Amino acid sequence: MAASMAVRSWREAINTQDFCKFLKEKNSKELSKKHQNESRSLICVYGSDLYIWNQPESQIIHCNLKSLGSSVDNTNNDLDTSQTQNSILDLTRNLSDDQSSSHQKLLVSSAITLEVENLEVNKSGSHIALYGPKGIKVVVLPRRWGKNGMFEGGRDVISCKTITIGERSFSGSTPLRIRQVSWHPGSNTDSHLAVLSSDNMFSVYDLYEPNDPLSVVNVNTGDVSCVQSPNKSLVGAALGETAVAFDFGLPLDLKPRSKRFQSGSAAPPVEVWPVYCVRGSGEILIIYSNLSNNRLLKLPVQGPVMMYPPAEDNYGVDACSILCLPTALPVIIISTCDGSVHHCVQLPVDKDNETLQSEAASVSSPAGCVWLSPLYESIPEPVLFVVETAELELCLGAPRVDEYPSGEEEDDFMCPIKLRKDPSSTDRYHCSHSAGVHSVALPWLHLVQQYFLDECGDFSMPEEKECVVEHLVCTKPLHSCPLSPVLGMDVVTDVTLGPTLLVLSSEYEFTALPIGLQYRMGLSGDICGVSVTSPLRRHSREPFSQHIANLLQRKASNPLLKSSSSAELSQQECFRLLSRTTQVLREEYIQRQDHARREIDTRIAVLAEHKEHQLEDVQRLMENRQALKEHAHTVAESVEAAKDYHQKLLRRLEGVLRGLQARVPVLSEAEKYMMKELSKLKDNMQLYKQNIEQVQTKQKYQAGQLSRSDAGPTPALQSRKLAQIHSILKEEGNDIQELKNDIRRLTLSLNCDLSA
Question: The organism sits in which domain of life (predicted)?
Answer without folding.
Answer: Eukaryota
